[in-house]
Amino acid sequence: MSRATLLIVAVLAAVSLTLPWESEAGTGSTYLPGPSYGYVFNSLTGYYEYQYQYSPGVILPGSPGRVLAGTQSDARVWVPLAVGALVLAFRRRSCRAGRVGIALMVVALARFGAGGWQTGTLVFAVATAVAVVGGWAWLSGRDRDRLAGSAPAPSPS
């Protein structure tokens, strides 16, 4: 993976964390009617009696829906792990770390994409696509060299 590809992936992943990743649906208000029958203690007789009781009723307010940015959702854990694995793969030239980084990105997309695609998820999907396409050639080239038993040819200076 080239330095430019890694930089693009890191920037897209960082930007995706500032955008909406998840949304939670709100709940509606509930009205509880007031007049009812209930047991009331009668101090004259010393017993509870079943009587009609009046109360005007109560409205329980609902909660509004909300949208969670990447920094408020679980994406704040997945995204840095995936990008960190890609940076480690780039610095150490490790095929395994590169595969782990791409796999973490795909798992994060599957986890958050299942709940509905938000803007942050879509930007992270683009970052994942860049990582897969950019890393695919690098990983497959490294595997070809390793399987052939030869080191990459030195570049002419």
- List segments where confidence is low: pLDDT < 50 over at least 5 consecutive residues: none
What value does the Rg take, in angstroms? 29 Å
Q: Estimate the mean pLDDT confidence.
A: 77
Percentage of residues in helical conformation: 40-55%
* Sheet with most strands: 2 strands, antiparallel
The helix/strand class is: alpha+beta
Distance between the termini: 21 Å
Tally of helical runs = 4
Order of helices and strands: HEEEEEEHHH
- Please give the domain count: 2
Q: Which descriptor suits the 3D outline?
A: rod-shaped
Strand arrangement, major sheet:
1-6
The beta-strand count equals 6
Percentage beta strand = 15-25%
Q: What does this molecule look like?
A:
This protein is α+β, with helices and mostly antiparallel strands and 157 residues long. It folds into 2 domains: 3-23 and 68-147; 33-60, no CATH class. It contains 4 helices and 6 strands. It has a two-stranded antiparallel sheet with strand order 1-6. The chain is rod-shaped. The mean pLDDT is 77.
Topology:
Layout (H helix, E strand, L loop, with lengths): L2 H15 L2 E5 L5 E3 L3 E7 L4 E7 L4 E3 L5 E4 L5 H18 L2 H19 L5 H30 L9
Antiparallel strand pairs: 1-6, 2-5, 3-4
Provide the descriptors you would attach to this structure in a database record.
157 residues; alpha+beta; 2 domains; two-stranded antiparallel ribbon; rod-shaped
